[in-house]
């Protein structure tokens, strides 16, 4: 029996714009007093009209371009209908069949290409707070997050292991942070992960696919890895016990319990038709001109993989380049590039010193580099020979020492320093001189 997991990922990223997606309320909702950042638009009051946030659209295009997507000349917003207390309007403005960006890819380090199906724009929902008031369990709703711009990045089911999924997620995270559209802080819920998983099983009977499962709202890479691993095992077991295969109607949604380390059934998955998508009548379709796309493309900084390879070209080891890029050590990267023009500086050594915490790039880099890379003579037998030679060639100074003029030790140390071009430790030389003079 051969088992091949098919893993896709939906990643939601909250954009860091000043205002929300379709109104002027502040988008930064974290830690604000509940329901203080709302207006008729993001509360979904009748008659309120949404106006798209240009900056958010640009951020969405940036993400699409960074993921090698085509930017669709014609795009539009759609209404996705569902009922939930945190969804003020009873629908979410999203993009259905004409997203801003589609058909991109991301390369893993192995060279494997992970397809990106689409990158689309939508708005966030409010937040429910389950609490106890006067001894009664109640649920409160905070609409500060309602209408905050979101981008959803949907991959193809091209990943075959939890390790590949983790690498993909880390790369997406780095790209988002590098292009500056969001801090993608997982603890603040700025990046939320939804793996979609099923398993291809090949046995004597042929090729079988287990039913698709989508795992909702995971907020850490490690939980995503654990949930994927659990789900692969569970699906293989379920197939062995029941023989149930994937069909058009048996996709389900599961949650992940990070304490028990298990996934659990939440609901049978809604199909697109259940959402009754239709074009958002209050926002005209978008025509995105090539000039505009090129302008955005020019604004993109070097992406993490490009930055790593530019450091590698200077001679920096890949593992060090990856650390510098993933920790966004911009100063260090700049310094390595600057100093690479200096023949005396080896970029590989410089990068390694920085990564290992031996050189602080915010201080005088050159002085630190010189003192750290100076090749000192530390071999004691070599130093002993040097000192002995100086003693042998200066019998009159030795005689003075024997008469009690102990300060002539300084003379021998000075001579030895000269001989070693200042690279030996004066402390070791002083010990050797005293020892040899008294022997
Ligand atoms: Zn508002």
From TrEMBL:
GO terms for biological process: translation. It catalyses: L-aspartyl-tRNA(Asn) + L-glutamine + ATP + H2O = L-asparaginyl-tRNA(Asn) + L-glutamate + ADP + phosphate + 2 H(+); L-glutamyl-tRNA(Gln) + L-glutamine + ATP + H2O = L-glutaminyl-tRNA(Gln) + L-glutamate + ADP + phosphate + H(+). SMART domains: GatB_Yqey (SM00845). Its EC number is 6.3.5.-. Residues 291-437 form the Asn/Gln amidotransferase domain. PROSITE patterns: GATB (PS01234). InterPro entries: Asn/Gln-tRNA_amidoTrfase_suB/E (IPR017959), Asn/Gln-tRNA_Trfase_suB/E_cat (IPR006075), Asn/Gln_amidotransferase (IPR018027), Asn/Gln_tRNA_amidoTrase-B-like (IPR003789), GatB (IPR004413), GatB_Yqey_C_2 (IPR023168), Gln-tRNA_amidoTrfase_suB_CS (IPR017958), Gln_synth/guanido_kin_cat_dom (IPR014746). Belongs to the GatB/GatE family. GatB subfamily. Allows the formation of correctly charged Asn-tRNA(Asn) or Gln-tRNA(Gln) through the transamidation of misacylated Asp-tRNA(Asn) or Glu-tRNA(Gln) in organisms which lack either or both of asparaginyl-tRNA or glutaminyl-tRNA synthetases. The reaction takes place in the presence of glutamine and ATP through an activated phospho-Asp-tRNA(Asn) or phospho-Glu-tRNA(Gln). This is Aspartyl/glutamyl-tRNA(Asn/Gln) amidotransferase subunit B. It comes from Candidatus Collierbacteria bacterium GW2011_GWB2_44_22. The gene is gatB.
